[in-house]
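--- STAGE predict ---
source: upstream dedup step, 1 unique chain passed
mode: sequence only
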Amino acid sequence: LRYLFWKIFSKNLFKITCPTLKTYNYLKKKNIFKEDQLEVLYDPIIDLSNLREKKRENLNFDILKNKKFIISIGRLTKQKNFQLLVRFFEKIRNKNYDLVILGVGEDEIKLKRMVKKLKISDRVHFLGHQDNVFKFLVNAECFILTSLWEDPGFVIVEAGIANTSVISSDCPNGPTEIIGNNGFLFKNNDLNDLLKKFEIFLNEDKEVLLKKKILLKKNLKKFTLFQHFKKMNNI
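--- STAGE serialize ---
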């Protein structure tokens, strides 16, 4: 039905913007729109004007004081696949990390029950919606995205800008394109591969990790408000 509507109205559309190159290629392959109608326009995720202040803000949470923690951020919904994250954390419970989950959603009660059943409630912290995620990201050991799909994946961009190592599912459409070799990608919805990539992350040389962070951050400049404005202005 969606394709039918697109076909009907395609002649009346000036431009169709795509948040990722994968989406652009997908629509191009469908041959619904003319190629000159399609444009890649990266989302304006990063506002550099107050980023430094956000990253420097104190992390005033007593439950995280003097603790190493892994962080994940997103709506507590099926798409974000937090059940996989909880199962993963239960498997690494002997690694001396805590898990911080930022976000709200319809799966919250289900996830908390799951955490309680696995007897890891004392080390998994649901901190709800937070206006400033950067103060958490800069203090985290790594950021993990377990989503089943994204387009493009705002939180990956935020984690990269915060100089946080990123471990992500290779779900469609954004993560692979954003991260490339500058993070750690695991097979979509695959617990064993997530555990494997986490071990690789833990054993990676510090210089290599730093290089990955720097290269990822450079790749994310296209997601700034300014770059978005420039491209939109050209369109």
